[in-house]
Design goal:
With 332 residues, chain A is an alpha/beta fold. Chain A contains nine helices and 15 strands. In chain A, strands 3, 4, 5, 6, 7, 14 and 15 form a seven-stranded mixed sheet that branches. Chain A has a six-stranded parallel sheet with strand order 10-9-8-11-12-13, sandwiched between helices. A two-stranded antiparallel sheet of chain A has the order 1-2.
Chain lengths: 332, 332
């Protein structure tokens, strides 16, 4: 392999993301310098946060530069090494971007694998999405047994873990997802107590019926009407882990209409970015790995085939078309 | 005195509060039972929270019952006592309601006075408004020297204390108030670094100019456009003490349009009710009294004369017509 493929940001979205915002390129595999490793990426993770990076609006992170490899988490295998800490054949997770190959000095690589867990899991339940769920649930929601929690995008990589952690804690877990198939999965496979199909048109009434004792904690992935419905059900001293507002990624306003509930119910709300809490990752990932090994944590993936399929899969993710963690398989 | 006057809630507001929602009554002074004290209320406190109680919407507190004395904080003097803990002449603060006299078993009375501080101060800077400011500033905003804080309703009973505490801490304190007179007072008398007149029509631009380093903490008394403007200036990890949303007291929606900032800036927001944190009152009131005695805390009052003037003063308070802590003087 003297060349590999990558996808760069060709232009910033004017509203919704379109395929033309991306460009597939073939580039040469660079020579390794001393201390570097060459990794063949087996899987690319697609995540909503990437939409934020595509814009140049003020945000917590610098925007994705134009004409450079799109940012993204990857899991792969070392294929050449001039770094004594990594050997050919090692499984590694890192931020390889939308690309088939990655050169790294090892600083931000995490060795993974060695068990029966597939490499892609390190992009989901044992990676950033899993940690996002773990952090929000344990550090912000702090739900106790018997309390009711609501999580939006419940069938997704993050939401599915939030609900399962809540069930393990003895909470009533209510999901919100789009469509009957996802809701069936959330209840039947993941073990949530209930799941509301927001596309069915009775969001508020359905959520009220599913939360007869109100809502004590919310994990918010979506924003907009879904968040408002959950806020409308809060009990006193409810906690909100504000993780995502996918509903507004295209630049439109996503107002919180039920803002008054924040006051009347003395809500504790925190926005958070899990990569700012790296000190907790070892503990969180260890707990998640134990649960996974014990069969107490289920996950599901949507797998797109080949790097060229990434833009379409990403656009689908933003529209909620994926079902479970969205990854792109980069090898045959 | 065999009778006294009180004001009861005659009807719930349909939108804005109107004078007909109240009714002035003359009632007999009851005989004291063993353990009771009779208090002549010298001052009644008027506060925005009362508007919430007038409605029967779901809230943190039970609604004010119809045809009963309007709830309210009072400061007065014991005029008869069958309780060994209180003597005639004692200054006391309590929840005497919109009434000239009050019978109490002493359980919720706080002895006040004995210094040069006027009785009315125990309804403001040394009472619930002062404690509200103290709690929000110290327990939620946690502003450090050099940080910029924004407080709305800055000339009011709560906001004026928030800003002064911030200045004592070494923060940049920026107020938002309605009208040039109030803003001049906030800067010239209270010592804020700047004050934005939201009625001048350039709220966002003026606030941006006054907060060149962004905003690290917000004390929100108003909600609506004022809150959105402050949120729009937040720095990463900003804290919001959500104390009031006076803008929506008449039942209209007060959406948070800049909700996205809560996420992108990882904002920590807490709604709170100071009466749920009584364990901190002794510490807070003691600190405030020390500051007041040392001339480091200034306050201003709007004094309405006579109980019959209370409804009009209250309606004015909701419209921002008061200037400083609104009280009603109940004695000649």
């Amino acid at each position: 392999m003297s060349t590999y493929q990558r996808i760069v940001l060709a232009s910033r979205p004017a509203g919704a993301v379109v395929p033309d915002n991306f460009r597939l390129e073939t580039v040469p595999v660079p020579e390794l310098s001393e201390g570097q490793v060459l990794i063949q990426n087996h899987f690319l993770s697609l995540d909503p946060y990437m939409r934020g990076r595509m814009s140049d609006a003020k945000s917590y992170a610098a925007p994705q530069p134009l004409n450079e490899t799109m940012i993204g988490g990857t899991a792969g295998v070392v294929v050449a090494s001039r770094n004594p800490k990594f050997a050919v054949g090692d499984g590694v997770a890192g931020m390889g971007g939308w690309a088939e190959m990655m050169v790294s000095d090892g600083a931000l690589l995490r060795k993974v694998g060695g068990s029966k867990v597939p490499l892609s899991a390190y992009l989901g339940v044992l990676g950033m999405p899993g940690m996002t769920a773990w952090y929000g649930f344990n550090q912000i929601m702090k739900a106790k047994a018997g309390e009711t929690i609501v999580v939006s995008a419940a069938s997704g990589a993050v939401g599915s873990v939030v609900g399962q952690l809540a069930k393990l804690k003895g909470c009533r877990a209510v999901g919100i997802a789009g469509g009957k198939d996802k809701c069936d999965y959330v209840v039947d496979e993941l073990g949530f107590d209930a799941c509301i199909d927001y596309k069915a048109g009775n969001l508020e009434a359905d959520l009220a019926a599913a939360t007869p004792n109100g809502v004590d904690a919310i994990f918010e992935n979506v924003g907009g009407a879904v968040f408002d419905a959950a806020l409308g059900r809060t009990n006193a001293f409810a906690r909100v882990a504000l993780c995502g507002m996918i509903a507004g990624y295209n630049g439109e306003d996503v107002p919180i209409k039920n803002a008054r509930m924040l006051l009347t119910n003395r809500v504790h709300l925190e926005g958070f970015i899990v990569t700012e809490h790296m000190e907790l990752w070892p503990q969180g990932l260890s707990e998640l790995a134990t649960l996974l090994a014990g069969g107490k944590l289920k996950f599901r993936e949507s797998v797109a085939q080949g790097l060229a399929a990434a833009p379409e899969a990403f656009i689908g993710l933003l529209a909620g078309k994926n079902f479970g963690k969205q990854v792109v398989k980069l090898i045959k």
